[in-house]
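Thread: quick sanity check before group meeting

JM: Hey all, I'm pulling together slides for Thursday and realized we never actually wrote out the predicted structure for the chain we discussed last week. Dropping the sequence here so it's in one place. If anyone has concerns about the input, flag it before I start.
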Amino acid sequence: MQSSLARLAFMAALGGVSNAMVLAAINTGSQASGRSDAAALWGVGLFLLGLFLFVKTQQYMMITATAEIEAIIHKLRVRLIDAVRQSEVHAIETLGRSRIVAAITSDSAILTQASSTLIFAVQGVVLVVCVSLYIAYLSVATFLLTALVFAATAVLFHVKGEELAEGAKKATASTSRLFDRFMDLLDGLKEVRLNRSRSDDLYETIVEVSRDSANTRIRTEAESAKRAIFAQTSMFLLLGIIVFAGPVLFQAVGGDAVSKSITALLFMVGACFHLVQSIPVLANADAAAERLETLESEVTSHIRSPGAPSGLDAAAFASIELRRVVFRYFDKSTEATFTLGPLDFTLARGDVVLVVGGNGSGKSTFLKLLAGLYVPDEGEILLDGAAVADANRNDFRARMAAIFSDYHLFPELFGLREAPDEEIARRLDELELARKTGVRDGAFQTIELSAGQRRRLALLVSLLEHRPVLLLDEVTSDQDPDFRRKFYLELLPGLVAAGITIVIVTHDDRYLNDVKFPTRKLRMEDGRLSGEG
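JM (edit): ok, ran it. Output follows.
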């Protein structure tokens, strides 16, 4: 990377020199116009050499710089994704997916789009420096006046910079809110189509958020445009002073030097215009990079159990115990803090535990605690008498397979590509899915299935993991009565016979009286567990 930067810096400097060579050649050629002496030939040669260097340096810088910038963006993106996959589930839920999705997609795209602008900006800076040196060679007075105008413009630019940065942050926040509301529309489209009042209210909210986002961006872009116009006006003012007042102000300088300085300033003004136009783009890129860095830092701070499981026998365990476990979280729907616990619970190997309770009682949160996905605020979880902590939490999780109420069905068998075809075929037949889908090259042929069939497919994936503990959250909620009966009276006994420890959150009380294996039934109410029989 350092060698690439060194080469880029050298090529940028050479590109600036090539621009200065073209400028000097034009000035030399304009003086030797109509003549064929050595000065004219020298001007032609200098022009052609400068043009050749310009083309070569431009090509090298564009290609190399784009490759380097894309490599940096790739590393940033991969680092953030890696941090997300290792972070705690509750922390990511709290951060919100809109920030993470925006960082991975739009912020990365902003950096990519700004790469060419950055290259041209660097070239513009080099050109301005080289032309300034050329102007200093022609006329020190003109150079000092140019430096004075540039310094004053830069100071005023800086004064407005912080205000614009704050406006950019507000614009990003409003865009994030718009994304959240739009996802509400997409995720809840069925509910929206069923209720016109809900549809109108949500639509008006989205319109209002969109209007706020547009107005915030308009104000920010307006201030940015004012800065750009001011900078361009300063350049024109500088040209006007040199053209109209130069001969009077700089009488000691020959008219030839003044005319050459004007030509040089025209080169510089063009470069400055490009620099001014690039400032908003680069400012957005800087803000995007800052957001990526901040988000990565926040996500990384929540990594408590880095790395993979140790590889110890994940099937080996005798008991899992929750002692006085308490977990608190903020419920966005009620805008109140929900407390689960204190919970005292023991799960012995081979147990079948059924957890019932009303909606919002804490059953799903209990399963996530039991799976090691949520870290208790108080109390402790024990595996065979040893406390589960950051150092061994991944080993604890390696014993769990789960289907949560908000499960995600992956289109491919990630991590299970070596699963035997015979086992997959047998499970598909057991789950009555053999005629609906299949597995080819480690991917499902289709997951465009009914809600119940998708949940059965998720059960297939969990069973292929061969974990000793299976956690099921309303796994039969979308199934027809015949399959529900089959699950409890045929599939579940087979899992019990295979020695799998099972915890099921369920409302299917009517099927439980017919099962032929011992079960424990617990009730969850207001975050507390109580036994029933």
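AS: nice. The chain has a mean pLDDT of 77. The first helix runs from residue 2 to 31.
JM: adding both to the slides.
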